[in-house]
Amino acid sequence: MRHRIAIGGPFALLLLLCSFALAAYAGVRLLADDWSRVALWIVGAAVLHDLVLLPLYAAADRVIVGGLGTRTMYVRVPAALSGLLLLVWFPLISGMTAARYRSATGLSPDGFLARWLLITAALFAGSALLLVVRVRRARKRRPPADH
Length: 147
What we know:
The structure is a single chain. By secondary structure, the chain is an all-alpha fold. The protein folds into 2 domains: 32-71; 72-138. The protein contains 4 helices and no strands. The protein has helices at 10-68, 73-94, 98-105, 112-141. Helix 2 (73-94) packs antiparallel against helix 4 (112-141).
């Protein structure tokens, strides 16, 4: 039995080639100025993720699965979205780049932490509300137990 690589149609192949070209261009531009610091950052991020963060969120996930069972998506999704926002905006949320942000944009970096916390609270509140609605609907659909 021969295995064939599924590439898709010509449009998918063109899109894939354009993605590789863009990544190569960005890599060349990124590594042109200070390749050693960029390489150190990439290796450090990989080590930090694999040795510190992965065990932490795997353990947190086990605790959540143990407590909620099949309803883990109501915690996983808002936690993942909140974590992604924290990852992207961490320098401004933590205040580490406040002076640089102010000089580059002319705007105040104040409020990023409060906004992230509000978005996180809204994500978890929306997820909890969705869970309550779905549990109530499931209870209404169940036929009454005969005694």
